[in-house]
Amino acid sequence: MTGDIAEMGKFIGAGLAAFGLGGAGIGVGNIVANFLAGALRNPSAAPGQTANLFVGIAFAEALGIFSFLIALLLMFAV
Amino acid sequence: MATEDVGGGGLAIHPMDQFIVKPLFGGDAIHWYTPTNVTLWMAIAVLSMTALMVLGTSRRAVIPSRTQSVAELMYGFVYNMVEDVTGHEGAKYFPYVMTLFLFIFLSNMLGLIPMSFTTTSHIAVTATLALMVFLAVTIIGFVRKGPAFLAMFWISSAPLALRPVLALIEVISYFVRPLSHSIRLGGNIMAGHAVIKVFAGFAGAMGIASVVPIAAIAAMYGLELLVAAVQAYVFTILTCVYLRDAVGEAHH
Q: What's the rounded mean pLDDT across residues A4-33?
C-alpha cells in the first residue's frame, strides 16, 4: 500500500492495455454495420453470409481479446 | 488466478474468485487425479450431452418430442455448417465438430447456472480444445495432401516479390491460431462472468440503490446467454474454416 512503484505500473499498464478492447469494439461495429447495410440492400443474400459475418467478428475480436489478456496478465500473473 | 486481494480497495469485490479450482472432497492439494469442481462440471456437461443426443433421440419418433427436436435441430445446424464451410469432403469430420460444439455450448450454458462452475472460462480447458483442433488440422492436412499442404503458405496469386513476406505472415498466423482460438472463448466467457460478479459486488455495497446494479446483472445475464451460444458457434465455425485448409476443397 505504501507507494510501490512496480504495483502502480502494473495497474496503469493494465488500464492502458484495456484501450485495445476499444479497437475491437470499433472493428466489430464496422463489420456488423456493413453487414446490415448490405443485408438491407439485398435481404435475400443475407442468410448465406451469416457464417462469414461471425468469422469476421471473431477475427476482429481476437485482437481485442489479446489486449484483454495482457491486462489480465499484468493484474494477476506479473 | 487471483487468490488474494491485490488492491485492498474499499469494496470487497473478488470477481476472479469464482474461477478458483477447488478439490471436491476437501483439502487443498491438487494432483492430476484429484476430482475438482472442473472435473464435476465437465462430467455434467458430458452427461447432459449424452442425455440430449442419445436418450433424447432413442425413441426415434416420427413426430419428435421436445427433446428430440432440440437434438435434431442442433444436429442439422452443425451438419449444415460443416458442409457449407468445408464442403462435402469435410463432412466426414462432422462427429468431431459436433462434439466440440455440444461440449462448449453445454459448458457455457451450465456455467450460467448460479453457483455453478464455468469450465470454459479456463484458458487451460479452451487451450486444450484449440490445440487438439490445431493438431488435427495439421495432421489431416499432411495426411490428405502430403507436402502440398505447405502450398497453403505460398500464395501463388500474389506478386512474386511479395510471396516470401506473405509466406512469413501466413506461417505466423497459422501458429497463432490455437492461441487466438482458445483465448477468444476463454476470455469472452471469463470476462462476462467477472463483469456480473463486479456488479454483484456493487449491489452488496449500495444499499437501497442496489436496484440499479441488480437490473444491470439481469441485463448482463441475458447478454451472457447470447455470448455463450455465439462463442460456441464461433469456435466451431473457426474449426470448420481451419479444417477447410486441410481438406482443401476450393470453396470460393
A: 90
When pLDDT is averaged across residues A46-61 and rounded to a whole number, the result is 85
- Domain boundaries defined on chain A: 2-77
B6 with A75: CB under 8 angstroms?
yes
Chain A with chain B: Cβ pairs closer than 8 A: 45
B3 with B30: CB under 8 angstroms?
no
d(CA A41, CA A8): 51
Positive or negative CA dihedral for A50, B251, B166, B151? positive
Query: Who has greater pLDDT, B158 or B98?
Result: B98
Alpha carbon of A1: minimum distance to chain B alpha carbons (Å): 8
pLDDT of A62 above 80 = no
Average pLDDT of the segment spanning A33-54: 90
Q: What is the ipTM of this complex?
A: 0.71
Q: Are A54 and B188 a contacting pair at CB < 8 A?
A: no
Angle between helical axes of A5-17 and A19-41 (0-180°, round to 10): 10
pLDDT at B233 over 70: yes
CB B217 within 8 A of CB B196: yes
**Residue A54 with chain B: CB contacts under 8 Å:** 230, 233-234, 237
Q: How many whole angstroms separate alpha carbon A32 and alpha carbon B89?
A: 31
The structure's pTM equals: 0.84
Beta partners for residue B36, in sequence order: B23
- The CATH number fitting domain A2-77, selected from 1.20.20.10, 2.115.10.20, 1.10.150.170, 3.40.920.10: 1.20.20.10
At B4 the pLDDT is 44
Three-state DSSP class for residue B36? strand
A39 Cβ partners below 8 Å, 6+ apart? A45, A46, A49
> Averaged over B222-236, what is the pLDDT?
92
Chain B partners within 8 Å of A11 (Cβ)? 7
CA B249 to mean position of chain CA atoms: 26
- The residues that bridge with A29 in the sheet, in sequence order, are none
